[in-house]
Amino acid sequence: MSITLTIAVPTHKRARLLAGTLASIAALEFPESVVPECLIVDNNSPDDTRDAVEVFARTAPIAVRYVVEPQLGSSYARNRAIAEARGEFIFFIDDDAIAEPGWAMELLAEMDRRHLDVACGIVLPTWNAPPPRWLGPSLYVRLAVHDEAAIASTNPPQRDHIHNYFSANVGFRRETFELFGNFREDLGVVGNNPISGEDTELFARIAMRGGAIGFAPLARVHHIIGRERMTRRYLRRKAYAFGFGSAIAGGPTHNHLDKLARNGLRMIAAAALGKPERAVYHELECANFFGYWRGRLALRR
């Protein structure tokens, strides 16, 4: 019996980076028992995305399909991929990530071994420039990448934690969406809107409703981090957006006034002690707080 697999790549305005992602997909290793396809979902890109896909398709060793999703938004693009995918497994990779040759099979093996509905692999940062001194491992989660040393030092049950799950590197069984639903389309990045966390909401929903989700440490991709993401302003915006999205998603929160006071004091103390990474960490926790309550206000309106 063969296994059918769809590798889905939602993309928007990243033709140059997408070419690198597609080249890494072309280099993936598959046994004869796996029948893969690559599905590129163009989220209405105004650049040369179609040309990049056509170049890739001419020599790709696997089937390639290209569809356009005109409704802007990461959730719309991912849900279009789910609708269009032909595989019994659907693996997502971001359009600015590079997969290692064994990525897909490691993800598949972990899902088979542990009977998982969802498996999330490790996302490692590839810096386009040396990161600033304050951008240390405690802040990597804000960039949706992992601290490889921290992952290696934790035991398997500790790795199976929602804070380790990123949609840049995730595999689903097709029936998982039938059982637990798709990405929520009232969440998800659209341009500069202050809402994110659609992937975290889906992972939490699956786990809460009894689905099996786990971490696959050998399924590795490398996420390209450009200079524009290595700024405190960018990270503040991301933290604010995640807080806003968590309010829209609903559920329990730790965003209470004591959190704001605590993190404000710790930010000041860390700055005074010359600990810039810790100062930024607490600054982002404050941004998350303000985003959450801005989201709550939006719900009331």
Structural notes for this entry:
By secondary structure, this protein is α/β, with parallel strands linked by helices. It folds into two domains: 3-229, Spore Coat Polysaccharide Biosynthesis Protein SpsA, Chain A, CATH 3.90.550.10; 233-300. Helices cover 44% and strands 20% of the residues. It is built from eleven helices and eight strands. β1, α1 and β2 form a beta-alpha-beta unit. α1 (15-26) runs parallel beside α2 and α10 (257-272) runs antiparallel to α11 (276-300). The chain is globular.
Give helix and strand order, one letter per element, not per position. EHEHEHEEHEHHEHHEHHH
Weakly predicted, low-confidence segments: none
> Globular, elongated, flat, extended or rod-shaped: what is the shape?
globular
Number of helices: 11
Helix content: 40-55%
Structural class estimated from helices and strands: alpha/beta
Beta-strand percentage? Answer: 15-25%
First CA to last CA: what distance?
Answer: 54 Å
Radius of gyration, rounded?
19 Å
- In round numbers, the mean pLDDT is 94
CATH arch. level architecture of the largest domain: Alpha-Beta Complex
- Please state how the strands of the largest beta sheet are arranged side by side: 3-2-1-4-7-6-8-5
- The count of domains is 2
CATH class of the largest domain, please?
Answer: Alpha Beta
